[in-house]
Design goal:
- By secondary structure, the chain is an all-alpha fold.
- The chain has four helices and no strands.
- The chain has one domain: 23S rRNA-intervening sequence (de novo design (two linked rop proteins), Up-down Bundle), CATH 1.20.1440.
- It is elongated and about 45 Å long.
């Protein structure tokens, strides 16, 4: 399971403080960072949606890698569980930002 690099109670000062940015493949945190750098909340929410789509791509690629024998079933399940946790964090971030609207 994932281990956070920062306590959950820590104040978020920038996108690098977000666990969802710290715990995912390249495209997911890249979209989180790009959205955070935008001037409008709507742009941030859009990029978080794109990050979620990238997460779905990653899950698909993991399952294909498993089917092709590049990953053991145990490793695939562990990584998919981590990806699901990232998805929950993205959803939580989106909910929190929508409340600020």
């Amino acid at each position: 399971m994932l281990t956070p690099t920062a306590p959950r109670s820590r104040v978020v000062k920038g996108y690098r403080d977000l666990l969802v940015w710290q715990r995912a493949a390249v495209s997911v945190p890249s979209n989180v960072a790009e959205g955070h750098g935008r001037e409008h909340l709507g742009d941030y929410l859009h990029h978080l949606s794109v990050a979620n789509g990238s997460l779905m791509e990653l899950e698909t690629q993991l399952m294909i890698a498993g089917r092709l024998g590049y990953l053991s079933g145990e490793t695939e399940e562990r990584i998919l569980a981590d990806a699901a946790e990232v998805g929950r964090m993205l959803s939580g971030l989106v909910r929190a930002l929508r409340k600020r609207r």
